[in-house]
Prior knowledge:
Strand content of chain A: 15-25%
Oligomer: heterodimer
Number of strands of chain B: 9
Number of strands of chain A: 21
Helix content of chain A: 25-40%
Low-confidence stretches of chain A: none
Distance between the termini of chain A: 30 Å
Number of helices of chain A: 13
Largest sheet of chain B: 5 strands, parallel
Mean pLDDT of chain B: 91
Amino acid sequence: MNxxxxxxxxxxxxxxxxxxxxxxxxxNLDVQLDVLVTDGVITEVGPVGTxxxxxxxxxxxxxxxxxxxxxxDPHIHLRTPGQEHKETIATGTKAAAAxxxxxxxxxxxxxxxxxxxxxxxxxxxxxxxxxVIPMAQTGAITRDLAGTELTEMATMMETGAAGFTxxxxxxxxxxxxxxxxxYQAVAGGVIALHEEDPxxxxxxxxxxxxxxxxxxxxxxxxxxxxxxxxxxxxxxRMEDAAIHxxxxxxxxxxxxxxxxxxxxxKVTAEASPHHLLLTEEACSTLDSRAKMNPPLRxxxxxxxxIAGLVDGTLDCVATDHAPHSDDExxxxxxxxPFGTTGLETSFAVLYDELVTPGLISLPVLVERMTxxxxxxxxxxxxxxxxxxxxxxxxxxxxxxxxxxxxxxxxSSNSCFAGRTMSGRISLTLAGGVIVHTAGATQ
Amino acid sequence: MKHLLGIEELGREGIERIxxxxxxxxxxxxxxxxxxxxxxxxxxxxxxxxxxTRTTSSFELAAKxxxxxxxxxxxxxxxVEKGESLxxxxxxxxxxxxxxxxxxxxxxxxxxxxxxxxxxxxxxxGDGAHAHPTQALLDVHTLRGRIGALDGRNIWxxxxxxxxxxxxxxxxxxxxxxxxxxxxxxxxxxxxxxGAALGCGETSSLASLGEADVVxxxxxxxxxxTGGDVPSLAEYANLYSVTEARLRPDQLVMHPGPVNRGVExxxxxxxxxxxxxxxxxxxxxxxxxxVLYELLAGAERDGRMRxxxxx
Lengths: 442, 311
């Protein structure tokens, strides 16, 4: 099997990070420690002041910081090929580095769609030249996302696919979806699902509720998502196949997934920062930065998504980083494309809005920020001797205003733009290489 | 006030101020010279992305009766059809230094966007199913002219609430003026949450229609049937048409036009003495004159204009 990610790599780091609060539930760590990285590998983890650095080792004082395994994002859009005016592999992975990530998984709904081994090979080759951090690529479930013919999933897995998804749309035809599940037995690869029954959602630009009624816009009912999740979980259980539910946004959806997990269905799921922190209220001024799919829902839904992330019903955080140009986003709300960027703000905004008020513990949030790669068959990063250095350092005193100094991403359509964040990622190591330091991404 | 984008930003006081001025403009049409010089030398652009005979013509006439210069841009045959973005179109029009841009657009929020891209005052002449504040003003004006204060009055708005910007703006305006508003229509045309959104009652039954002082029927668009929102216009008419049989003798009837006789409202109701439909149309010009006057007459031209003039 070929490499399942592309990355340009870099010089292995020699760095001693001292005094940081090291948080990694996989090692039962939540304590101040020194961490030594030698030639890109974690070689020592010990009490503060006990590790001495060699001459060629840089020392980073992390007294104000939280040192974590770097994050993994199972759901981002790099717009390559075909829409490089929104984002490229280079800019998107650089934004991810700035957000503390060491691995991102790109969606295949590009132009053309990544629906065959040759296109997949091309993307991984380009990633190996330009990706700032390791980047994995999913392939489509159906050719051209048309929902009718399966792609060559087995060959794509051999070529290095991370898994499969028709992200952006649901696999409408239950028969096609069932064949994809059955075929997983030979091809492998998790099937990740954007759950939205188009007959119920009707492509509406926001949630169905008081805000859509007031604005005179058609709304998507939450049932457009939850009924598809129920259908797909039932089929996955029947076929004993593994599925991953993307960007869960409603109370009912969380309930369905919780029930299915209790019954042993092989289902994992993700939550996005915007569904964890915002509601449909954000659409009331028709600000297109608050237009995403699935749409922002109600406070009841938001609280259910938080509860699901806390209790593990939702396994991980996924940004659904969806860059769009200013021209596209400055159209009327209905015409503007769905999506918000998210890679540069995810941990900082979740730390302020969920950890600080005590809605989720820091170790649990870190676990959820790092687990997104697991459904796709990647080992999660961890802070342990012998492991490659995949580390994110969060400076809790580096207050900043999101977007004020510009973005690393090519696009600025962030639903969190203008927020004051109390802390910021100041150092990221991916695969043993320093890929981001405060004020400068490598 | 710089723009008129929605009725709620006027409040009751603003509505009353504009309608009092509208009353004073009502006599202008009967003068020998049907004009007042209030906006002489000012440019007003009508930018219509949807066809609308009565709204375009009444805005044009209102501007002309205030002695303004008017140009009307329609989407058909224009750069709009060549794929120009709304933002670029506004930049082009803004170069003509208009005092006001009147905009009708099929998308909710379009007028609000336009207001961010121009130095002119912007008047929302209808954006999607969101808002139509000048229609709301002329509805209040018409009803006030007939029954006086609306406080405590019961008004039912009947029909396709889902797709109606008129319902949203007019319901808010009636509520601001102290009336109690009920929205009635088929469940498939009453969006979930609409009552809470607008602070109105909502019902799918006309059984209590008798409690209304005024019944406001909405246009039922033929294209709604293809979307499957109602099984047929005939069944809609059976259940929801405003007919003499459903009305008490002293109830008044309104409609924003154009009317589908025999669908949302019976022809004999349209032509009866209880109908205020003709008065609504007549009120359009004076009310729009008052809106233009409100936004423009007091406002100084911006500094850049004066500098250019001086040079």
